[in-house]
Amino acid sequence: MPTFWQKLAAERGFLRVQAPMEGVTDIAFRAWLSRYAPPDIYFTEFSSFSGLLQGRADTMRRLSNDQAGEQGVQRPLVAQLWGNDAEQLGVALPRLVELGFDGVDLNFGCPHRKIVAKPAGGGLLQEGEQSRALAMLQCCLSARAAGEIPPSFGISVKTRPGFARPDWGFLFRLLDCRAGGRGLDALTVHFRLASVPKSHSQGQGKSKGHINHKDNSLWAKFATALPQPWQDGPCYWNQSEKLLKLRRQSSGSGTLLLGSGGLGPGLSSTSWAAAQATGLDGWMAARALFDDPLYLGRSDCSGRQRDGGKYCEDWTNCWQRTRLPRRLFLLQQHLLLYRRYFYHEGQGQGPIGKHAGFYEVFKKFYRVYLPQVTFWAGGRATEEDKEGTRLLSTLQVSRSVEEALEILNKRSGSS
Predict the structure, then answer these.
(1) Per the count of CB atoms within 10 A, which of 17, 204, 301, 359 is most buried?
(2) Tens digit of pLDDT for each residue in 66-123?
(3) Any domain includes 121
């Protein structure tokens, strides 16, 4: 029985997927995307299946699913889980079905030091730990084959080509894993190694919480032997042909292959077209949503045109050309959705939580919506840019969603 992965691939041709991002892709942001820039597939934040089983508040917040409200149009919705215990995962899968998710995605690629040390995420790519990852995948496939979860429930994996060096054999085993005649529905590969921090490779210094390959003896051992592009740690898409070859050689011919990493204006003004040219079945956009939050929903310039599959040659300035009133409207709608889902309003079922820390997490979005005029902009900055920068400074020191909305309402009233 086909899942939503196969159905959407047949319908759309090339899938545009919203990547799971910690502290970003919560229920409010997904609701905002569903209104203004809907992707083909939605993903939750990065969540542990042990936290799901224990009913921890932070995990349940990440996996919140308002099926009766805005979430009704956020379909299909995939829960991305991490952990290292196949038995716990087997118990958690029926719970995901009860919560209304359309599929599960196993994270075998997170490079954060604390996650790697468990070992989970990218730590499962290390030699000696890969068997845990394969056992978890086999658990999901066996549960579906045995009818413990619906046959239409999607099963996917997001991983990397390797830990300290490429390990295509592990990816082959993932593609070859089967139960009841069915394997993975989709495999997403972030084309960077788990032990190479992205920010370090881009000259931004050490990345807190990530493995620093200068201090990593395993990396030092292999650095001189590794072929480019793996030494420097940036994202390289030219390895996608190896992934396609693995699929042809494995029994997972029905598995969709998606790429991830480096999809943004900093690399190419034709990055969507370049992603499609890899021959993969789709791409996950993460950082690109901070460069242009409307990116996944563009139909006229920066996104795929559904009627022809064509791409804009100059999408990098689409969001930059968006006028300030439109940006403020979109920001206000995001704030309203955030208040709806994370703050008590005195009516109906209580929202997920009320905590000052939640609002501090939201503040990262202000830099997405509002222009930032730097000292080197010179005379190129417009009055709107300068006003947006002043608003950004004011909103960054606001203490609540209500205060931020009041600031935006005053600006709207005076304009």
Answers:
(1) 17
(2) 654 555 578 899 999 999 999 999 999 999 999 999 999 999 999 989 999 999 999 9
(3) yes
